[in-house]
Amino acid sequence: MIRQNFRFWLLTFFLSAVLFAACDDESSNGTDAENTEEPTPAISEMENSDLEISNDQLLGYWEVLAATRNGKRTESLKDAYFNFQEDGQMETNILGEPLNSSYELSGTAITQSGPPKLTYNIKRFEDSLMVLSSQIQSFKFQFQLKLGEEEPAEEEDQEEEVQ
């Protein structure tokens, strides 16, 4: 009888230990283990769902501080920017070469007329910082932007050469 009780408690202890270890493995092999990229702090913060943005707040030269593509940090947009102008025109180089097109702000969505026609969703907006998200082809992008004081140095150099 004692031997049967011992076996019962030993088996119960063993199964409990296995189940406990299995639960621990599931949590460590879940999204945290698969998501090995280093998060961009401002991008991963909570979204501001009560955004009210006017076109005047959007105007200006916004430089990309950090960007993610499908949740992973990308350095390919290191010198990227958005420049929103009063006349409803914008310029951006996120696709490589600078592209000028018209844009429309509707709520928290900025629609670039293109080509290609793209929509950027404003996820966060505070003073001189903004976070945009967009789907470009099959990639999900997020951009952390900072309102800049001036446009890129290349344009300034070109102006000096003209004079």
Short summary:
With 163 residues, the protein is an alpha+beta fold.
Strand residue percentage:
35-45%
Helix content: 25-40%
User: What general outline do the C-alpha atoms trace?
Assistant: elongated
**Alpha-carbon distance between the termini?**
103 Å
Quote the average pLDDT: 77
Question: What structural class results from the helix and strand content?
Answer: alpha+beta
- Main-sheet strand order equals 1-3-4-5-6-7-8-9
Q: Element order, helices and strands? A: HHHHEEEEEEEEEH
List the quaternary state of the chains. single chain
Number of helices: 5
Main sheet properties? 8 strands, antiparallel, barrel
How many E-type strands? 9
Unreliable runs: 14-46
Rg result: 25 Å
Question: Would you mind describing this structure in some detail?
Answer:
It is built from 5 helices and 9 strands, in the order ααααβββββββββα. The chain is α+β, with helices and mostly antiparallel strands. The protein has helices at 2-28, 31-34, 41-44, 55-58, 153-162, and strands at residues 60-69, 72-73, 81-84, 89-92, 99-106, 109-112, 118-126, 129-136, 139-147. It is elongated. The model is unreliable at 14-46 (pLDDT under 50). The chain has an 8-stranded antiparallel β-barrel with strand order 1-3-4-5-6-7-8-9.
